[in-house]
Design brief:
Blueprint: H1 3-9, H2 13-26, E1 35-36, H3 38-45, H4 49-61, E2 65-67, E3 73-75, H5 80-104, H6 107-122, H7 126-143, H8 147-157, H9 164-167, H10 174-185, H11 188-216
Antiparallel strand pairs: 1-3, 2-3
Amino acid sequence: MTRALAESIGGTVRQRTVRELRDRILTGSLAPGTRLDLDGICGEFGVSRTPVREALLELSFQGLVEIAPRSAVTVTGVSPDATVDNFAILAVLSGKAAEWAATRITPEHLDQLAQCIAQLDAAQADDELIDANWQFHRIINQAAGSQHLLALIRQAVRLIPSNFLTVMPVHDNSEHQELLDDLRKGRAKHARDVAEKHVLAAGQSLAGWLAERQATTAAPTAR
C-alpha cells in the first residue's frame, strides 16, 4: 500500500496517472462530487489526453468516478464506511499471509524484516517511511508462499491509497516488532491476529480522518 508497491504493479503513464488520482480520491483530496477537468489533469501531470482518459476509465470501473455523456467526469469517492470495508478485506488477507509465513518464513526473510524495522525507526522523510513499510509487508506476503494469496492481496491493495502513511503517519513500530517476534517463534495464530489488527486499525484511522474532512470541506472545483 505504498508508492513502491504501485511502481511494482506497473510504471506506465496511465498507471502512474491512475495511482495519483486514486490516491487523491481515496484520501479525500478529491472530494465526492468534484468535477474533473481532463485538460487540467493533462497540464498538471504533463501527459497527453489518451492516458488520462484511460486512467479515468479504469477509475470508473473501480467505482471511484462516474463518466457521464460528453465525457463529464465526477468523483464518486469512497465513504468512511467503505474505507473500513476495503481495509478489512486487506486485513483478512494480510492476516492469512502472516499466519502462513509463521511456518514457512526463512532466516533470510527474518533478517530482512529486522532491517525494515530499523529503517522505519530511522526514517526521516515520508518516502522513506512509506517504502520501508511497504517492504516489510511485502516480505511477509511473499514468505507466505502462495502466489494465489499474493494475487488477491494485490487486488485488494488497489482500493488502499498508496500514500496512506503520508496522510496518516505512524511512528510507533511496536506492532511491526510484535509481528516479527511472532514469525520468529512460529506463533501462527497470534501473527495472524496482529497483522489483521494492524491493517484494520489503519483503515479505521483513515476513515475517521475522512469523516472529519468530508464534514468540513465542500467539494472544490477540481483540476
